[in-house]
């Protein structure tokens, strides 16, 4: 048994523990113990990974292991990690850990689904077999329906249905794409590395086929990555989801999209990415600007954050589509940064909503005097979101922009500059929000009686802020780690994609 | 690496630590302890900066040719970006060291002053934490070794400015002003960022050590890329330094506590744009001299515009704010009028005499920081005394506040350019450089200098002489401020008195060679500008000194529209308001949001509805009645038969 599998094993044991647990205290015990183990495990993995790299191990994937699973169909259970997946595992652990504290008063069934969701997420990030990956992807998506439908707020049935149906629609595209790749590559293996490196790397998938399967796979994952115009599940879904589910969903699940686009769609079909990437690049460019402008006029806190996520996740896909090592590193950094920042935002929104019972910014004001801790953290989250140096957003955005700018043609330049404008618009909606709800004087008598954060809430929030600040003030190590994971993928894409120039804008 | 300067890291580390400490644990400390922590760390920074300056200017700063060199005591890769890298480090050269002195002096004085001014305010600890954050960021900005590090700290000073303007966060104008300041400067920073991206891509470096990187030369051959990059960076600088038309945030920023206005919005942060142009100056002069004309004329127009508006304002802080805009524009002009050798003998060398504007700009930056901080701190004392910013609440204040009165008068004389106060010397250099550039520019700047003297003395007489608001004064009993507030005034005034005699030309010049101050000082020009300033002051005295001001009223009545326009700052704020609210919010954002809900979302809802309806229709086939099944079976069989036959 490879030790990466422990990442899936722990959530399974947690499920067992939760099933056996009889009272709230033991439920919390199981959750805290389990998520702490996961956090420690990912920290250990990071250290081991860095040591291994420092020792000169340059294999694409480390700690690999493979077991036959469904032999006639060539499906294997294969695991392995590179710099990108280590970063993602670390992110997931932080979010699951803090999410546990944020959902302190939830019941057993909720935690069961929550844990199952995280099992899916971990499984996805450690897999290097397309089918296993897809299976874990589905495992992560389905609990969402129940978590929103049962424990959500507002029009929760509609939101849960919409979210699930749209993501399932994406999965349908994705499945077509995956089988297309499988048969296109000869129908012998589902292993990503094997497909990529078959016959000394000369890619087996026929170019005409790549042109069909690339858009399907990319759009399939893109739905989860909030790619315009498939993003509309995000505002409704997030608005209705309970706090920790929003955190996990925006923080980690949306990253599955970007990760999959990079790891499967682009890595396995370089020519497809080269020829058709521009379509998606335009769409992500629209996402970035469109999401930011939409957020400016929203009045629901969660809608603002959801549209902000559309904009920031747009930057993730934008970065990877630049097919440039620096930009792609920036994209992964942006995944980390957006995951943490948005989780922090949703946590704080949940806490404020839990007290004021409203998320309408017109009905709140002067919260700074009433709940200083939450308000100060909200300001910090806002500043981190608008890319203040010292927080993770800054380094991620700067890396993406510097990388994108290296694509020295007008098409890429114009898109990069358009994406840059989002940093101004982000400042507009964040400051508008902060000015409206936190500053000023409270006009609502009811609000004056509210209390500030409890200890478990404070703990969760401080952990998230600490991670964001640590990432933002000492970015070199994580940047180097991610870079080591991105480099072979980008090299592979650039090496096996002939410049056929199907982009009409170039 | 020059390890003997390694201690300069402390200059950044001390305020950072005090920020962290006060930010995290400030609420547990008493006001006094929190203030003391902030002030002590700044005091140490002040001493360290003095020591650094001493070591640099009189010690190892000069190389064997007697030219001040750029030292890099510390530099490390902070974020690798492929071929490029984002470094963090410390760079010491004459302008950086000069800025260290300016920032640490004014900041230290403001820290002391705030003890008195902010006494008993709620959030006192938070205030000191933000001050520390600001000082750290500003110091980091000036010692940056590369343009990206500058941008990083540039953003940080922006956010500390935002936090400090919005310090009184329960008041609506403060919230609006802080938001405006941040967004306007952020908008300008967008151009700065794009400029950096262009520069980084073509020069393959972000570093300021231009000489060592041969790639700059290749960059220069990439057509207009370098001038474009520099111009975009200048737009960023124009945002921070409140150049027209991006100046609109600065007057509103006066909503912040007055010591903050003195520190951030008069002496240090607002000159960041000038500093940035000065930093990139070797590139400007060598590769983009034509673009430099734009800098000069934007500066000249801003100087004129702000001076005109300042003549009509009634809020004392607003007058000072517009005066600041105008004076910063003087510095920009001084940089803009530097031209390479006219005969084109060697385009990369700056003619020694033509480079005088660069020196003048930095000189004026230094003297202006001192006297403008004095003016703002005096304004703080006055506001403290009468609880109002309006000139109408003042008048005749000289009787109540002698120290404030005298320090204010000296600073006014300095800014008007009366010898022997510091402003005379620095402004004279600027005028000289302007005349060398073109006589038109020279006369324009002289005219604006005259306006400066006029509005400053209008302000002076309005506050300390003029019509006294006796009712109001009987109510609030104005009195001189405590020592914590008067000491900084006296200290900064003392610097203003002597700063003009600092041989600035010896330490700062565009090409590193020293100017002989006495030899090139243009006495005729000095006498001329001094004479014009005196006439303006006389005019202001004639109009505004008396108890009754018939001439002022007459002037106002003679041109009511002009006065109204100037008072309303030529309605520029309304134009911006229109653009942001009407166009951006109402037409762009609202339209996009509506489009999203109605069409994109509508499409997916339509899909869901369609599927549902389809299912509803098909449902009829599963009716359960045998006859119907048999009928359909029959039809199907018939169809199959037809297919087979055909």
UniProtKB/TrEMBL annotation, chain A:
The chain crosses the membrane at residues 6-22, 29-50, 83-103, 110-128, 134-153, 165-185, 212-231, 252-270, 276-297, 304-323, 335-354, 415-439, 459-478. InterPro entries: NADH_Q_OxRdtase_chainM/4 (IPR010227), NADH_UbQ_OxRdtase (IPR003918), ND/Mrp_TM (IPR001750). One of its GO terms (molecular function) is ubiquinone binding. It holds the Pfam family Proton_antipo_M. The keyword Transmembrane applies. Keywords: Membrane, Transmembrane, Transmembrane helix. GO terms for biological process: ATP synthesis coupled electron transport; electron transport coupled proton transport. It comes from the Bacteria. GO terms for cellular component: endomembrane system; membrane. Belongs to the complex I subunit 4 family. This is NADH-quinone oxidoreductase subunit M. It comes from Alloprevotella rava.
TrEMBL record, chain B:
It is a multi-pass membrane protein. InterPro entries: NADHpl_OxRdtase_5_subgr (IPR018393), ND/Mrp_TM (IPR001750), NU5C-like (IPR003945), Proton_antipo_N (IPR001516). GO terms for biological process: ATP synthesis coupled electron transport; electron transport coupled proton transport. Keywords: Membrane, Transmembrane, Transmembrane helix. Gene3D superfamilies: 1.20.5.2700. Residues 144-449 form the NADH:quinone oxidoreductase/Mrp antiporter transmembrane domain. One of its GO terms (cellular component) is endomembrane system. It comes from Alloprevotella rava. The chain crosses the membrane at residues 6-26, 33-54, 95-115, 127-145, 151-169, 181-202, 222-250, 262-285, 291-312, 319-342, 362-386, 406-425, 440-461, 482-503, 523-544, 629-645. PANTHER family: NADH-UBIQUINONE OXIDOREDUCTASE CHAIN 5. Its main location: membrane. It is found in: Endomembrane system; Membrane. This is NADH-quinone oxidoreductase subunit L. Residues 78-128 form the NADH-Ubiquinone oxidoreductase (complex I) chain 5 N-terminal domain. GO terms for molecular function: NADH dehydrogenase (ubiquinone) activity; NADH dehydrogenase activity.
């Amino acid at each position: 048994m490879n030790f990466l599998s422990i990442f899936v094993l722990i959530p399974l044991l947690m499920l067992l523990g939760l099933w056996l647990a009889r009272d709230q205290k033991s439920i919390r015990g199981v959750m805290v113990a389990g998520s702490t183990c996961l956090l420690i495990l990912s920290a250990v993995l990071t250290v081991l990974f860095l040591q291994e790299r420092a020792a000169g191990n340059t294999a694409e994937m480390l700690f690999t292991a493979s077991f036959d699973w469904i032999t006639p169909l060539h499906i294997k259970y294969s695991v392995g990690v590179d710099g990108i997946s280590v970063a993602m595992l670390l992110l997931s652990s932080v979010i699951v850990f803090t999410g546990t504290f944020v959902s302190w008063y939830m019941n057993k069934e909720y935690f069961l689904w929550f844990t199952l969701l995280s099992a899916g997420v971990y499984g996805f990030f450690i897999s290097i077999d397309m089918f296993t990956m897809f299976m874990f992807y589905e495992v992560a998506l389905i609990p969402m329906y129940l978590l929103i439908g049962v424990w959500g707020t507002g029009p929760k049935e509609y939101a849960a249905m919409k979210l699930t149906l749209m993501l399932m629609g994406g999965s349908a595209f994705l499945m077509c794409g995956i089988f297309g790749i499988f048969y296109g590559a000869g129908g012998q293996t589902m292993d990503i590395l094997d497909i990529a490196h078959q016959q000394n790397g000369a890619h087996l998938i026929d170019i005409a086929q790549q042109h069909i399967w690339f858009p399907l796979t990319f759009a399939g994952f893109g739905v989860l990555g909030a790619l315009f115009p498939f993003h509309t599940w995000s505002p409704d879904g997030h608005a209705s989801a309970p706090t920790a589910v929003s955190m996990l969903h925006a923080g980690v699940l949306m990253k599955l999209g970007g990760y999959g686009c990079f790891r499967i769609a682009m890595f396995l079909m370089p020519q497809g990415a080269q020829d058709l990437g521009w379509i998606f690049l335009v769409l992500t460019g629209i996402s970035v600007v469109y999401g930011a402008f939409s957020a400016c006029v929203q009045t629901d806190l969660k809608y603002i954050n959801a549209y902000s996520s559309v904009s920031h996740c747009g930057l993730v896909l934008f970065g990877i589509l630049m097919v440039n090592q620096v930009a792609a590193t920036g994209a992964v950094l942006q995944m980390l940064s957006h995951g943490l920042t948005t989780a922090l935002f949703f946590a704080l929104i949940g806490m404020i909503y839990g007290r004021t019972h409203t998320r309408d910014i017109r009905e709140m004001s002067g919260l700074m005097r009433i709940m200083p801790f939450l308000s100060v953290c909200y300001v910090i989250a806002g500043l981190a979101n608008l890319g203040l140096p010292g927080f993770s957003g800054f380094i991620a955005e700067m890396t993406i922009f510097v990388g994108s700018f290296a694509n020295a043609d007008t098409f890429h330049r114009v898109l990069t500059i358009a994406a840059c404008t989002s940093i101004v618009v982000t400042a507009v909606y964040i400051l508008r929000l902060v000015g409206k709800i936190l500053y000023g004087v409270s006009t609502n008598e009811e609000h004056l009686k509210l209390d500030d954060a409890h200890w478990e809430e404070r703990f969760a929030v401080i952990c998230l802020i600490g991670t964001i600040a640590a990432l933002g003030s000492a970015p070199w190590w994580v940047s180097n780690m991610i870079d080591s994971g991105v480099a072979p993928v980008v090299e592979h894409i650039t090496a096996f994609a002939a410049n056929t120039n199907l982009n009409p804008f170039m | 690496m020059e390890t003997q300067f390694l201690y300069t890291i402390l200059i950044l580390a001390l305020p950072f630590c005090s920020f962290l400490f006060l930010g995290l644990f400030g609420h547990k400390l008493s006001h006094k302890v929190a203030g003391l922590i902030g002030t002590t760390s700044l005091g140490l920074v002040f001493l360290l900066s003095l020591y650094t300056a001493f070591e640099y200017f009189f010690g190892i700063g000069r190389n064997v040719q007697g030219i001040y060199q750029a030292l890099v005591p510390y530099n490390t890769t902070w974020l690798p970006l492929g071929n490029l890298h984002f470094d963090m480090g410390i760079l010491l050269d004459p302008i950086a060291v000069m800025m260290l002195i300016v920032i640490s002096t004014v900041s230290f004085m403001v820290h002391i002053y705030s003890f008195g001014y902010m006494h008993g305010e709620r959030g006192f600890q938070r205030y000191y934490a933000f001050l520390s954050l600001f000082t750290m960021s500003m110091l980091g900005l000036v010692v940056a070794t590369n343009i990206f590090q500058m941008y990083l700290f540039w953003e940080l000073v922006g956010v500390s400015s935002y936090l400090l303007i919005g310090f009184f966060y329960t008041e609506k104008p403060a919230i609006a002003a802080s938001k405006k300041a941040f967004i306007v400067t952020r908008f300008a920073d967008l151009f700065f960022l794009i400029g950096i991206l262009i520069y980084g891509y073509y020069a393959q470096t972000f570093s300021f050590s231009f000489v060592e990187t041969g790639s700059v030369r290749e960059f220069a051959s990439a057509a207009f890329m370098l001038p474009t990059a520099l111009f975009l960076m200048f737009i960023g600088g124009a945002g921070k330094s409140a150049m027209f038309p991006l100046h609109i945030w600065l007057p509103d920023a006066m909503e912040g506590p007055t010591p903050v206005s003195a520190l951030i919005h008069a002496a240090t942060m607002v000159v960041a744009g000038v500093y940035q142009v000065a930093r990139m100056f070797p590139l400007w002069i060598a590769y983009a001299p034509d673009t430099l004309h734009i800098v000069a004329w934007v500066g000249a127009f801003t100087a004129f515009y702000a001076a005109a508006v300042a003549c009509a304002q009634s809020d004392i802080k607003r007058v000072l704010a517009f005066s600041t805009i105008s004076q910063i524009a003087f510095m920009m002009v001084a940089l803009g009028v530097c031209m390479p050798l006219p005969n084109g003998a060697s385009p990369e060398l700056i003619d020694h005499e033509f480079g005088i504007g660069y020196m003048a700009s930095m000189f004026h930056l230094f003297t202006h920081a001192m006297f403008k901080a004095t003016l703002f701190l005096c304004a703080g004392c006055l506001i403290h005394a009468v609880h109002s910013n309006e000139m109408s609440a003042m008048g005749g204040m000289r009787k109540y506040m002698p120290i404030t009165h005298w320090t204010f008068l000296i600073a006014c004389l300095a800014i008007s350019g009366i010898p022997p106060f510091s402003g005379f010397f620095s402004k004279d250099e600027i005028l000289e450089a302007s005349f060398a550039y073109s006589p038109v520019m020279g006369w324009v700047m002289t005219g604006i200098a005259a306006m400066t003297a006029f509005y400053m003395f209008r302000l002076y007489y309005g506050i300390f002489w003029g019509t006294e608001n006796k009712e109001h004064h009987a109510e609030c009993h104005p009195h001189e401020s405590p020592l914590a507030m008067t000491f900084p005034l006296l200290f900064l005034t003392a610097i203003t008195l002597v700063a003009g005699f600092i041989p600035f030309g010896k330490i700062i010049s565009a090409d590193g060679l020293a100017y002989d101050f006495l030899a090139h000082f243009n006495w005729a020009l000095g006498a001329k500008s001094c004479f014009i300033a005196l006439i303006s002051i006389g005019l202001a005295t004639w109009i505004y000194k008396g108890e009754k001001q018939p001439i002022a009223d007459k002037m106002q009545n003679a041109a009511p529209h002009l006065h109204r326009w100037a008072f309303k700052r030529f309605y520029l704020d309304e134009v911006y308001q229109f653009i942001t609210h009407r166009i951006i919010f109402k037409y762009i954002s609202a339209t996009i949001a509506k489009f999203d809900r109605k069409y994109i979302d509508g499409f997916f809802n339509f899909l869901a509805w369609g599927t549902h309806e389809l299912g509803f229709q098909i449902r009829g086939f599963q009716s359960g009645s045998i006859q119907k099944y048999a009928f359909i079976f029959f039809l199907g069989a018939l169809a199959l038969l037809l297919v087979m036959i055909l």
